[in-house]
Amino acid sequence: MTGTDGDAKAATFDSFYLGTNRRVLHQMYAMTGNLADAQELVQEAYARAWQRWSSVSTYDDPEAWVRTVAWRLAASRWRKTKNGVTAMLRHGPPENTPEPGIDNVALVAALKAIPEAQRRAVVLHHLGGLSVAEVAHETGSPEGTVKARLSRGRAALADLLADTTLAEVSPNA
To answer: What pTM value is reported for the model?
Structure first.
């Protein structure tokens, strides 16, 4: 699509959106009874309309298409929720899981404190059981980079966890 075609597409979609979005939102709000849900559904429906605008714009009533998509998205959400409730009723509520121990809380807090790349490498390797090569493949990084991230991440965690342990043990900290 050339720049001019793209500009024309954007202009017709913008005009359509500005002329219909509030009406569709109000209708979906009335149908769902929840404004936040209605906003999400309408946003997704318009995003899908934009992706297919070359076809949708030729329909007799593009607004009806958007409204139908939004309604189907809502119905899909309700089906998923209903299926989840049905499964829970069939299998019972999940077993009570004990609260995380202080070590787990400290580890999660320490993981949050290190850079994302290091955290991801440490979690995949040490908690996920992936090899260095598998972590490299999953993250799209060279193995040497993964090894460096693991080394730095472990060192940072050791410092953070040592500080946490000292702070918890020492009454003056």
So the answer is: 0.51
Cβ neighbours for 153, distance < 8 A, ≥ 6 positions apart: 114, 115, 118, 119, 121, 122
Ranges in the chain annotated CATH 1.10.10.10? 102-169
CATH for 3-91?
Answer: 1.10.1740
| Residues 66 and 23 sit within 8 Å (Cβ to Cβ) | no
pLDDT at position 68 is 95
Using an 8 Å Cβ cutoff, are 39 and 25 in contact? yes
* Spatial CA neighbour of 46 closest among 17, 79, 75: 17
Residue indicated by tokens 């219909």: 20
Q: What whole-number distance in Å separates Cα of residue 46 and Cα of residue 14?
A: 11
Q: Assign 93 to helix, strand or coil.
A: coil
CATH 1.10.1740 residue ranges of the chain are 3-91
Write out pLDDT tens, residues 31-52.
Answer: 888 899 999 999 999 999 999 9
CATH number for the segment(s) 102-169: 1.10.10.10
Of the two residues 122 and 4, the one the predictor is more confident about is 122
**Helix 62-91 vs helix 3-32: angle between axes, to the nearest 10 degrees?**
50
